[in-house]
Design a protein that fits this description.
By secondary structure, the chain is of the alpha+beta class. The chain contains 14 helices and six strands. It has three domains: 147 residues, Globin-like (Orthogonal Bundle), CATH 1.10.490; 98 residues, no CATH class; 90 residues, Arc Repressor Mutant, subunit A (Orthogonal Bundle). The longest helix has 50 residues. The protein starts with 11 loop residues before the first helix and ends in a 30-residue tail after the last helix.
């Protein structure tokens, strides 16, 4: 191939490459067709893209590449923006970024292969081939970087929008702001069956930390509400260290708002009493009522605990004794061992309490009122007390008790 060398003529490599590019432009249709067939064969995702739309995209990419190659230059800002637009379009079509970049590589490889054939036929020199190759791959790298970045940006935006729709749906189900028709229509899209029962839950870090990101065995839908993780799942969540979870009774989707309200109340109650774990309202005995009814709690505290203040240190000692006694389900021997007392000394303290308050520890109503008052004081604290109370397990004072019980002095 004769190459002009007169002063002012284009560099030899640029002139050779320009003439070869012009020749390839004359046979663009078969080149585009071959690239399209290979893309659809190697990348199944592209088979759902209409063939004519794919051909137009390949033609545009190859044409822009040939224009840059003709001048042995990198892509312009306008060309990069066109490539970014394709990346965004492919993301909106649901094509994975790896598939999109693979398709670009196929188009570039097809162009490179055809250039090699034409260069051999025309006897192009090595310098021209190297110039074309370097420009092509640098152009391809720059374009694919932009395509990948634009695709990922849209992908993230679509994921955020989907998450927002999912979060809004979960809150609408739990709070009861979705109508029956919409619930039936939307639930299937999130893998839910309106006729199946689910467990609503609400979880919070016990020490006021950030909301837990997930719950063990929670296989349903979750979102954030205030400082809490809320959601619904097929089975109650397993306990996690440092996390308080309130759960409602199993219910169908339409009935979950009521169940979620119960889960929220259970969580608030467990937090107030310093509990950790997974709780339903039933697991917390009458503590939800203690937390909610201030007036009744204050009345019981006034009747059963405030008279002890007049006894000074003995009054605080009696209150601590009663708390440990309830914690050990009113078993005299177990309570005495926990307090390092003789059993008769414990009985004497119980009689002393009865004398100071007029309560009868054999009467169920007095026992309930006293336990209520002690739990109420656990919530509010008492500055007059001289010693802290030991922690109480989350159980009813009368549940599952056996052995010797002192329901009053004996």
């Amino acid at each position: 191939m004769a190459v002009p060398t007169a002063p002012g003529s284009p560099p030899p490599a640029a002139q050779v490459v320009g003439s070869l590019v012009a020749e390839i432009r004359q046979e663009l249709d078969p080149l585009v067709a071959r690239a399209g067939d290979r893309i659809r064969e190697e990348i199944p995702e592209f088979r759902r893209v209409p063939a004519d739309a794919l051909a137009r995209a390949i033609r545009g990419n190859v044409t822009r590449a040939l224009t840059a190659l003709h001048d042995l230059r990198p892509p312009t800002d306008a060309e990069l923006e066109q490539a970014a637009a394709i990346g965004r379009e492919r993301a909106e079509q649901g094509l994975a970024v790896d598939a999109v970049l693979h398709a670009y590589r196929i188009s570039i490889s097809a162009l490179w292969a055809r250039f090699g054939e034409v260069a051999r036929e025309r006897g192009a020199d090595v310098a021209s081939v190297l110039a074309f190759s370097e420009t092509l791959w640098l152009w391809g790298d720059a374009v694919m970087d932009v395509v990948g970045a634009a695709h990922r940006e849209v992908e993230l935006q679509l994921a955020r929008e989907e998450q927002q729709r999912r979060d809004a749906f979960v809150l609408a189900v739990l709070l009861g702001t979705i109508d029956a028709a919409e619930l039936s229509r939307e639930s299937g899209g999130y893998g839910l069956d309106p006729e199946r029962e689910y467990v609503a839950f609400r979880a919070r870090a016990a020490e006021g930390g950030p909301p837990p990101r997930r719950l063990a065995a929670a296989d349903g839908l979750t979102t954030a509400l205030d400082h809490d993780l809320v959601g619904l799942c097929s089975e109650p969540a397993a306990p996690l260290p440092g996390v308080v979870v309130g759960v409602g009774p199993p219910a169908r989707l339409a009935a979950l708002p009521g169940a979620f309200a119960m889960a929220s109340r259970a969580m608030q109650t467990a937090l107030a009493f310093g509990q950790e774990g997974v709780f339903s309202l039933a697991d917390l005995s009458i503590r939800p009522a203690i937390l909610a009814d201030d007036a009744l709690g204050d009345a019981f505290t006034g009747r059963h605990l405030e008279p002890l203040a007049a006894l000074g240190r003995l009054g605080a000692e009696l209150e601590d004794t009663l708390r440990v006694w309830f914690d050990h389900e009113m078993h005299v021997e177990e309570t005495a061992r926990a307090l390092h007392l003789h059993a008769n000394t414990l009985r004497h303290r119980l009689r002393r309490f009865e004398e100071a308050t007029g309560a009868n520890l054999r009467r169920p109503a007095d026992l309930i009122e006293l336990w209520w008052a002690l739990e109420r004081r656990r919530l509010t604290g008492d500055r007059a007390r001289t010693a802290p109370a030991p922690p109480s397990p989350a159980r009813s004072p009368r549940r599952g008790s056996t052995g010797t019980r002192a329901a009053g002095p004996a």
